[in-house]
## 1
Amino acid sequence: DVKVTQSSRYLVKRTGEKVFLECVQDMDHENMFWYRQDPGLGLRLIYFSYDVKMKEKGDIPEGYSVSREKKERFSLILESASTNQTSMYLCAVEREQTYEQYFGPGTRLTVT
Amino acid sequence: ELKVEQNPLFLSMQEGKNYTIYCNYSTTSDRLYWYRQDPGKSLESLFVLLSNGAVKQEGRLMASLDTKARLSTLHITAAVHDLSATYFCAVDIPSGSRLTFGEGTQLTVNP
């Protein structure tokens, strides 16, 4: 199985701060994803990347950007955090053979 | 736009009983996934169903896929408390690599 780690389990930031969330995989898979999960709204795709320096917008990219400089690392950036970005953020890596996505432990971000 | 609907959204059942969670989706897809999420935790992959008629079983859970009906079921046999969790189905769009998730079914198994 793919091991996916995220830089923080819990994070508290202030409105207007720049926030970096990092995701690292222990293998060499190409596709990586960032989701946010909110009660009553389920999981929503923010961005995904299918290779180094390649990215595509998901369903809710506004207010976010991403960076993938190395294959194993995919970063989500909140340029100027706002309170409506308080959420659980989940990173996932796709295993090509089955298209199955493996999720990291999640980062619970609170913006005050 | 692909829509994925699960029902029920909330399910409270007694230990030892059987029940089925349903997952309907709106667009042709040959790939369907079931995940489990415990409170405060991330998602754990349960089943990957990659073709019409696929059936997979693990312990007290069995998942099946009918692509013609655009329906997957997750059947729980003789439920135990440890199965209490939220279960999500997810469907891959035909062009691949973008999962759309259902709302999740919150299952509570009571002793």
Note: Chain B has one domain: 4-110.
## 2
Amino acid sequence: AQSVSQHNHHVILSEAASLELGCNYSYGGTVNLFWYVQYPGQHLQLLLKYFSGDPLVKGIKGFEAEFIKSKFSFNLRKPSVQWSDTAEYFCASSSGGFKTIFGAGTRLFVKA
Amino acid sequence: DVKVTQSSRYLVKRTGEKVFLECVQDMDHENMFWYRQDPGLGLRLIYFSYDVKMKEKGDIPEGYSVSREKKERFSLILESASTNQTSMYLCASSSGTESSGNTIYFGEGSWLTVV
């Protein structure tokens, strides 16, 4: 069955530190991959997605993610985090059908 | 902008009550979903619908049912609420087309507490 694993449940960083959140998916066929973000008190929103083409995907607010097919990974990165990046981040995959599978989420706390 | 609206942000219900959570989307999306979000478990799919009157079970359908009588509206029903159904419920929709890449748009969520 399709599954998504996020490596860290909680991450605490200082401002200006670099961020990398790990995500691995299990499906071996064609996939769409997503990172969603939920800021405190707000609804989930799309951060970025990989659909096809360039495996390095750039999203909003300076985030990027790299799709590495051989490693079944789609890690999220940001070179320098800000206090406003404090949020919960969800990796998700869709195999092209209707169903999207989400990881357990990673809570990021950025110290000002 | 896509808007997914959930009728109630916060509800408190008693064990055994029948609970209705309503969701409306305004982008003519074919697909609609109900998830529950619990700490450490992420989002788990309860039910989804890919067309009017069509529904499919997700990963955790037990204790829930759904209704989709109109394309824009997708209701989640707890026939007899139990305390283990205390959670945040998220409604979502997607167009399901290749060009959209199955991007899902979420509502703000409904916090349900069953006492």
Note: Chain B has no helices and twelve strands.
